[in-house]
């Protein structure tokens, strides 16, 4: 029977192992206000599979196996596992020998609960349910219904259940557990990611003395022959420019973004025979003399810019 | 007489010396293409300045060079 339950669980109950760790669902609630216990993973029970929406993370199946094997000693962590425990215990009760062994075990537990906590309506009902479970099938079903109800009702006074009583529900005493679980970062749609990257292109971060890194990964490090830093060196190719040097046709505040674009472009090709020099056809005019490509000269083996200027290509 | 850099065609090639070794070199102020050992200033014969200087145990900066009078 146990083997049957385990074997059938993945298919017949929509068990999806790939969703066990939350799948694609964002955790919206860490606390179930209805059932007053923590949702262990922070993910909704069936939300991991938006198509089937049934036991996407395998909790029900886990509860079934737990209920079948451990009976009342299994500690469900949520409603899904509790429902699974009910089914598992029902299956155990219908299994010859194993069902009787489980009844002995659960009756012993009920007796111990009365010994430890005294005879109350909760422990009394627990004992009655354990006795009823000796009736195969119907009795197990009655116990499976009564026991969780007793637990939930008896859980109202905080801490009234302890592991020795067979309860699986612990009172939540840490306020931080009631806070929403951290949100997962949202995946950006490619076109929006590109747009965002374009907006951020050319943004600089200082990484050292006379050293900056652009949002596109290019670095501007050190000084040139005239004591200009590498950004100032590149900006010599902005209007009005320096005689003899080609000039970009974009404003100086867009130059670094343009170079990031050239560096990131899939169209960038190495210049034959010149180490760490690249040409990127931009598909538009980027220079004042009709240049349509950007030539990047980097320090070999790095992304450090030595120079960059517009060129005609091919 | 200044020479246009055959590598980048953007900057001028200057005569300089490596301070640590006193070796004469020619360097493009735009792209740092460097010629050493009397090699002709041509596209095929340049080396990267920082690569050359670091190979000699130097930081690889312009301050490693003494630029001759222009």
Topology:
The complex is a heterodimer of chains A (314) and B (70).
Chain A (H helix, E strand, L loop, with lengths): L1 H11 L18 E2 L4 E2 L20 H12 L8 H15 L4 H20 L3 H12 L5 H17 L35 H11 L3 E5 L2 E4 L4 E3 L8 H5 L20 H10 L4 E2 L6 E5 L11 E6 L6 E7 L3
Antiparallel strand pairs in A: 1-2, 3-4, 4-5, 6-7, 7-8, 8-9
Chain B lengths: L2 E2 L7 E7 L5 E5 L4 E4 L10 E2 H7 L9 E3 L3
Antiparallel strand pairs in B: 1-2, 2-3, 2-6, 3-4, 4-5
Describe it.
The complex is a heterodimer of chains A (314) and B (70). With 314 residues, chain A is an alpha+beta fold. Chain A has two domains: 2-178, no CATH class; 190-311, no CATH class. Chain A contains nine helices and nine strands. Chain A has helices at residues 2-12, 59-70, 79-93, 98-117, 121-132, 138-154, 190-200, 230-234, 255-264; strands spanning 31-32, 37-38, 204-208, 211-214, 219-221, 269-270, 277-281, 293-298, 305-311. In chain A, helix 1 runs antiparallel to helix 2, helix 2 (59-70) packs across helix 3 and helix 3 runs antiparallel to helix 6 (138-154). Chain A starts with a helix and ends with a strand. In chain A, 34% of the residues are buried. The model of chain A is unreliable at 1-52 and 156-168 (pLDDT under 50). Chain B is mainly β and 70 residues long. Chain B has one domain (3-67). Chain B is 10% helix and 33% strand. Chain B has one helix at 49-55; strands at 3-4, 12-18, 24-28, 33-36, 47-48, 65-67. In chain B, strands 1, 2, 3, 4, 5 and 6 form a six-stranded antiparallel β-sheet that branches. In chain B, a hairpin with a 5-residue loop joins strand 2 (12-18) and strand 3 (24-28). The longest helix of chain B is centred in the last third of the chain and has 7 residues, at 49-55. The radius of gyration of chain B is 11 Å and the shape is globular. The mean pLDDT of chain B is 91. At the A-B interface, strand 9 of A face loops of B.
């Amino acid at each position: 029977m146990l083997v049957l339950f385990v074997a059938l669980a993945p298919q017949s109950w929509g068990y999806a192992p790939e969703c066990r760790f939350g799948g694609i669902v964002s955790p919206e609630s860490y606390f179930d206000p209805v059932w007053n216990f923590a949702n262990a993973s922070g993910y909704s029970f069936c939300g991991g599979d938006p198509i089937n929406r049934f036991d996407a993370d395998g909790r029900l199946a886990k509860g079934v196996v737990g209920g079948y094997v451990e009976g009342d000693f299994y500690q469900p962590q949520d409603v899904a596992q509790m429902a699974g425990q009910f089914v598992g215990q029902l299956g155990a009760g219908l299994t010859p020998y194993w069902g009787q062994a489980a009844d002995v075990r659960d009756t012993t537990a009920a007796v111990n609960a009365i010994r430890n906590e005294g005879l109350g309506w909760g422990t009394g009902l627990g004992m009655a349910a354990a006795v009823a479970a000796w009736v195969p099938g119907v009795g197990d079903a009655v116990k499976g219904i009564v026991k969780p109800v007793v637990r939930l009702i008896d859980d109202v006074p905080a801490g009234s259940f302890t592991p020795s009583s067979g309860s699986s529900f612990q009172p939540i005493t840490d306020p931080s557990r009631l806070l929403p679980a951290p949100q997962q970062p949202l995946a950006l749609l490619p076109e929006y990611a590109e747009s965002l990257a374009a907006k951020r292109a050319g943004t600089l971060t200082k990484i050292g003395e006379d050293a900056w890194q652009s949002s596109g990964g290019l670095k501007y490090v050190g000084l040139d022959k005239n004591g200009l830093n590498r950004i100032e060196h590149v900006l010599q190719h902005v209007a009005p420019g320096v005689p003899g040097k080609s000039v970009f046709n974009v404003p100086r505040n867009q130059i670094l973004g343009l170079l990031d674009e050239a560096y990131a472009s899939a169209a960038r090709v190495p210049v034959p025979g010149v180490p760490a020099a690249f040409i990127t056809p931009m598909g538009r005019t980027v220079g004042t003399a009709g240049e349509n490509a950007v030539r990047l000269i980097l320090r070999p083996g790095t992304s450090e810019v030595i120079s960059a200027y517009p060129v005609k290509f091919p | 007489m200044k020479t246009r850099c055959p590598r980048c065609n953007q900057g001028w090639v200057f005569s300089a010396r490596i301070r640590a070794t006193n070796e004469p070199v020619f360097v493009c102020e735009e792209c740092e293409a460097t010629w050493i050992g009397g090699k002709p200033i041509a596209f095929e014969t340049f080396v990267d300045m920082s690569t050359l200087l670091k190979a000699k145990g130097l930081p690889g900066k312009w301050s490693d060079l003494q630029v001759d009078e222009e």
